[in-house]
Design brief:
alpha/beta; 4 domains; 22 strands
Length: about 650
């Protein structure tokens, strides 16, 4: 059994690698493996280690240059040890380091063991500095002042697998983000007060390179805060995280910034650091989804409603409360609003019996034209021709505000009356109907209806711009990103999954309609399989394209790997168990399922649609050009060929 896997990234260190490797091969712990990852070295590093490559303890890998984090993440995929360790290739260690640390780990059942280290200067070997761990009694104290370096620790592999913590690629301060994403999963920490590691200070090392890369600290800190909020841990560790952020910005990060020779860059980074620090002091960090929603309600006068008015009657309209993104958002919104006792809320649907109706608060009234969905093409003609009659029968004079929550037939019904009228647009109007003559007629007719609304809300800037290109300057227009109940998503994601997902996998949750591009997803999947890249695709959802998709899946002989799971009232356990969440639509609105995937901290791959606004500040996202061939090539080269199926760095 391999007790410890030691991952050593190697890039242009021919002067140091022999010493590093020698210190590992002399370890008194026999049951170790040394994973060397050659990260595209261009000097004589490989030549230096060739004499040792036949040693059974060494596993050697080569990859294209991607940086320190990329090499570490690559090495983690191949590690077999009970515990994982990291060592930079210009450093070296005492020969009894891993034996003593492993023994402590086993004796104390530790998730992580930490030791002390010595700073050693390349140009003055007599000069050293001891780095001793600060004392802390518990995890909270550790969060305030940890030593986040990776190479003085043993970490239990099972903890790493559970956390799925990775080093952020392309950024410095990578250890900081990795460590803070690991902390929630570490329960028992041990410590050895021995100086096992020699941390070499050289002029051109990454840590001593002072440039605009120092600005990466702001991205790293944002990523950490984002992670804790999305995991529902922020309130628990808020005090410690804020302290850490102030200490980093005014401490180690500032020391690096002050060494920058470029005066303009140095000044800008100092100012940015101070601003970020002031935000923390004034508690102006990004608000949670719930707080953001309340802020919009109170400050931006959402729905143009004065919420303090007594007995305000509001009617939301949607075709059906089935399983869908807009439908889910509406349920979350009305449930939140129903907490205000001054509001009287009704949902009007064309078809009753939707799956999400049972999730509505008991204070919300439901009203439908039909008790269940009817598959009859003449229904839409009836609704269009008798729209005013339907309005008079069900809505006239009964509500202070009518909110058409989804474009389509409700838009043509809710536009009547003298009360306040608001329309909500979730899709790209320029594409949602297609380009046929019938579609163009629909758009021209709908312009007449949209003119009757006092306000039109869009869930993305791109959808607003597309609407304006077609309809011009009509009504008051505003972008408001959809609200989502984060706590509900996290809670429901913990429920037991019905079907176990095989790994590696890609998963999507979507309606089975042409807009969503599932057919091209099937073809791309087939091409990847033919190239030898084994994986599974799971699709949650239903729709009119289901049968044609089943035929395509059968035709391409991918029935065992491209799996249509059908509708799921609770898709969140599946999203949680996915390796990647994928949305390859031809066009989209904001894509609320992406917000749900973000809450569950999933890597996301989407096509270039309005949905990109949902992931523009999300570090685990990849946006692909909206073309089948280009999607295939990007997935092949950026994910599959690089062996990144278990990582999220793009």
């Amino acid at each position: 059994m391999i007790k410890v896997s030691i991952i050593v990234p190697m890039y242009n260190v021919e002067k140091y690698i022999d010493r590093c490797l020698k210190s590992l091969l002399e370890q008194t712990l026999d049951e170790i493996e040394i994973i060397i990852v050659n990260d595209g070295s261009t000097d004589g590093s490989e030549k230096e280690i060739k004499k040792d490559l036949n040693n059974e303890k060494i596993r050697y890998f080569e990859k294209e240059n991607g940086g320190l984090s990329s090499a570490r993440n690559f090495g983690m995929k191949y590690a077999k040890g009970e515990y994982i360790a990291f060592l930079d290739s210009d450093d070296y260690v005492e020969k009894n380091m891993y034996e003593e640390m492993y023994n402590v780990a086993k004796k104390e059942n530790a998730d992580m063991v930490e030791c002390d280290f010595l700073w050693e200067w390349e140009d003055d070997k007599a000069k050293t500095k001891k780095d001793t761990r600060r004392k802390y009694k518990n995890k909270r104290e550790m969060m305030k002042k940890p030593r986040v370096v990776a190479w003085n620790k043993l970490i239990k592999k099972s903890v790493l697998e559970k956390s799925r913590a990775k080093f952020p690629e392309g950024l410095i301060y990578e250890d900081l983000e990795f460590f803070y994403k690991l902390i929630p999963y570490i329960n028992n920490i041990s410590y050895i007060n021995k100086y096992f590691v020699y941390y070499i200070q050289r002029e051109n090392s990454i840590s001593n390179t002072n440039s605009e890369k120092n600005a990466d600290i702001f991205k790293i800190l944002d990523n950490i805060f984002w992670f804790y909020k999305n995991q529902g841990l922020y309130e628990e560790y808020k005090k410690e995280l804020k302290y850490m952020k102030k200490r980093i910005l005014m401490g180690s990060s500032m020391k690096r910034i002050l060494k920058i020779r470029d005066k303009k860059l140095r000044r800008n980074l100092i100012i940015q650091s101070i601003r970020e620090c002031i935000k923390v002091i004034l508690c102006k960090e990004t608000k949670s989804y719930s707080n953001k929603f309340n802020f919009l309600i109170k400050k931006n006068k959402l729905y143009t409603i004065k919420l303090n008015t007594i007995n305000k009657k509001i009617c939301f309209g949607i075709t059906k409360l089935g399983i869908g993104g807009a439908e889910r958002v509406l349920v979350d919104i009305v449930n939140e609003l129903s907490k205000d006792k001054n509001l009287d809320i009704t949902i009007f649907t064309i078809y009753g019996g939707g799956e999400l109706e049972k999730e509505l608060s008991k204070n919300i009234k439901l009203k439908s034209i039909y008790n269940k969905e009817i598959k009859n093409k003449f229904i839409s003609i009836y609704i269009f021709l008798f729209r005013k009659h339907i309005y008079n029968k069900y809505l006239r004079g009964k509500y202070d505000v009518n909110i058409d929550f989804l474009e389509g037939p409700i838009t043509r019904i809710f536009c009547y009356g003298n009360n306040k009228k608001i329309a909500w647009v979730h899709n790209d109007i320029s594409k949602v109907f297609g380009n046929s003559l019938k579609a163009n007629i629909k758009r021209k007719i709908d312009k007449y209806f949209y003119k009757k609304y006092e306000k039109i809300i869009f869930v993305s800037k791109q959808n607003k711009e597309a609407f304006e290109e077609i309809y011009g300057d009509i009504s008051e227009r505003q972008v408001i990103y959809n609200y989502i109940n984060k706590d509900r998503v996290i809670k429901m994601s913990k429920q037991k999954i019905e079907e176990e997902l095989e790994h590696p996998n890609l998963l999507t949750v979507t309606r089975l309609v042409k807009q969503k591009g599932i057919d091209r997803f099937v073809r791309i999947h087939k091409r990847l399989l033919d190239n030898g890249f084994i994986h599974k695709v799971y699709v949650i959802g239903d729709g009119k394209e289901r049968e044609s998709l089943k035929e395509l899946i059968k035709e391409l002989k991918v029935e065992n790997s491209f799996i249509l799971l059908g509708k799921k009232e609770n898709p969140y356990p599946y999203i949680k168990n996915a390796d990647y969440f994928v949305l390859l639509s031809y066009f989209e609105g904001y894509g609320m399922v992406l917000e749900e995937a973000k809450i569950l901290d999933k890597p996301i791959i989407i096509t270039d649609t309005a949905a990109k606004e949902a992931v523009q500040n999300y570090p685990k996202s990849l946006i692909l050009e909206n073309d089948e061939e280009k999607i295939y090539n990007r997935l092949l080269n950026n994910i599959f060929k690089k062996g990144n199926l278990w990582n999220y760095q793009f």
